[in-house]
Amino acid sequence: MAPQNKEQLDQKKHERKAQIMRAAIKVFAENGIKLTKISMIAKEAKVSHGLVYHYFTSKDEILYASLDWAVEEHKSAKLFQELNDHEVSPLEQIKQFTLFAFTESDTEISNGVFRIIQNLSSTNDLPEHLVQFVEKAGQFYIESLYPLFVEGQNSGEIIKGDAEELLGIYLTVLSGIMADDPAFWKDNTEQKVGILTRMISER
Amino acid sequence: MAPQNKEQLDQKKHERKAQIMRAAIKVFAENGIKLTKISMIAKEAKVSHGLVYHYFTSKDEILYASLDWAVEEHKSAKLFQELNDHEVSPLEQIKQFTLFAFTESDTEISNGVFRIIQNLSSTNDLPEHLVQFVEKAGQFYIESLYPLFVEGQNSGEIIKGDAEELLGIYLTVLSGIMADDPAFWKDNTEQKVGILTRMISER
Amino acid sequence: MAPQNKEQLDQKKHERKAQIMRAAIKVFAENGIKLTKISMIAKEAKVSHGLVYHYFTSKDEILYASLDWAVEEHKSAKLFQELNDHEVSPLEQIKQFTLFAFTESDTEISNGVFRIIQNLSSTNDLPEHLVQFVEKAGQFYIESLYPLFVEGQNSGEIIKGDAEELLGIYLTVLSGIMADDPAFWKDNTEQKVGILTRMISER
Amino acid sequence: MAPQNKEQLDQKKHERKAQIMRAAIKVFAENGIKLTKISMIAKEAKVSHGLVYHYFTSKDEILYASLDWAVEEHKSAKLFQELNDHEVSPLEQIKQFTLFAFTESDTEISNGVFRIIQNLSSTNDLPEHLVQFVEKAGQFYIESLYPLFVEGQNSGEIIKGDAEELLGIYLTVLSGIMADDPAFWKDNTEQKVGILTRMISER
DNA sequence: AATGAATGAGCCTTCATTCAT
DNA sequence: CATGAATGAAGGCTCATTCAT
């Protein structure tokens, strides 16, 4: 008799799923979606491939659910807690955001989400729900940073020009780095962020 | 049957191979190595997939030979013809290089090589000869630009700091963009290069 | 925990098994043996698939036990209760049998058994015990109806000819219909039986 | 140098496809659609499973193409060449049709088509094109025989009643036999057809 | 040289079966 | 007794590679 109540079981089940989703995010991010094999996710999560299908119905669902989970779990909770700190200048806030996006506790996850979204953006024939997801996710970054760019331009901190285009360039650079060399942020993070923001800072 | 002499045949053969390698570079660059199918290369080259195996023995060999060919054919010949123009400042030369690397006439090839090398760098279990190849290619960019960075620092045009690290950041940004969003360079190229170089330019 | 005595427990256990076997017969009949999934049986029986394996050791055993159970429980008890009614003519008895075989109260079961046996007959590599089972079941129908055919021929009600062959044709037609279109019997059953028996009835 | 012209190659290709389709019809008919494995078709056709996919893109397409091919190849050509023989009575024509449907030269194919259509009819979620195909095929038999039934009723040869329903019963019996016991027709075919048509013949 | 027919290894997914609770 | 988590064998399909023509 193992008298576990329903709550405990649900808890366990949820952890199992999380375990798989965490693995999925990591492996998807590292290898790209097409090249990620279920067996890789299973191995990373230390479960059999069969079990993966016990919790998810398809590779696509794994991807979708994992993204959803990761975003809920990581993004909303923490990503912008400090972004509305009106004590500091817009440019400073942008730096903090940049810094933060790559240094939060569970870097692997949020980093992974970023890279996966990258990967998705360049994919054709994306199913509608993923298209929306990607757009939403993209919007998220844009909507968060756009006001700061405009504000910075008004205060003379940020160079003139089409704010949206400027933001586009900045985000392309960031996502490019993440896709290309995630280890980039390991050392001297603040200094590197400083250099990156020089792109847009007025002298 | 027009009796062609050996030279003509060799010529023809070489053209055929070049045709395939050109296609390979393009398709490898666009899709990544693993995701590139022989049939895609064959289609791009407008030959049957069987013929591809007439000239090359395996997918890996196509890759290797195509890279070699592309580098020999394009890189050394043209990439730096203007880089030693001592009329312009180091920073300007860096801009020109950046611009050039993405806009030269045969962009597709050199750009492709760049992206393929990107792709290779993130691959594990690379056979030794490719490892060396990748390293050599990386070295090439570094060796070409490093002097310009130092020179720029000396002349006060480029911000202080470890020149090698600065160059590393700059190249990471560039390669990230290419891996991530090659279309980035389509419009307003000069303006974008201008913004990118702001990262390293002293005010 | 209400302390139940052994008998009650046995009773309960038996009911559980019956519940599963009833479900199995139904699902096997509807979907065929190979296409029946354990999960379908479990769902039909409203138990978990794990429990199915608590009572049976394999899919094959479920099939075998269910058939045995169904035959014992239903066939002998009821199928021919009226067949020896000597008030009516042999042809009439054949009609009643035909009618009965598809319309008796617990149609689902006996009908199901019929269809499963159909299914088994067309299977190769049947284990020996099932071969015998199928043969025995076939024999059952033959032995029951054969005397009626002979009797009918003697009384001039049924057309002349090899009684066994005639019966074979009749049973092939019946079993074909059941295998092919069980819904056939839904409407106008008596009329349809009337038409079918015209095959063998002397005018 | 194997100077085969295009025609020869096309011919060969067509034969290969036909070889696979013939095998497909046989295996699909014997095992049902779901239970038919590509490997079974490949084995029957004596080719590798890979080659099957060289000619067809999916199991479904194999099914669809094979049915189309079989119908074109066999049905139209021969099935009704004699059906419009106005020398003989409607009932006789029905007998001839029945006989013919099971004894034409390439029995395996036309028989197979019949069984596969049977199988399809009882399938849910059939893709639209197959639904139409099945209906069309069903219509074919109905449209061919229906006039004969009506004619026979008018001439008093066939029993009264809803001609459509009568035909339905007759076809259900036929298709049931084919699904259930194709070997039924091996011996004494004419006699058996005679008995079957007694169902509908007036005395 | 050139084509495309042919093969088989490998990945996604399903499902019978076993096991921990 | 009961549940559902966990495993792995097997089948559909893709694609690199080989081969006949």
TrEMBL record, chains A, B, C, D:
This is AcrR family transcriptional regulator. The keyword DNA-binding applies. Residues 37-56 bind DNA. Gene3D superfamilies: Tetracycline Repressor, domain 2. SUPFAM superfamilies: Homeodomain-like (SSF46689). Residues 14-74 form the HTH tetR-type domain. PROSITE patterns: HTH_TETR_2. Keywords: DNA-binding. Pfam families: TetR_N. It comes from the Bacteria.
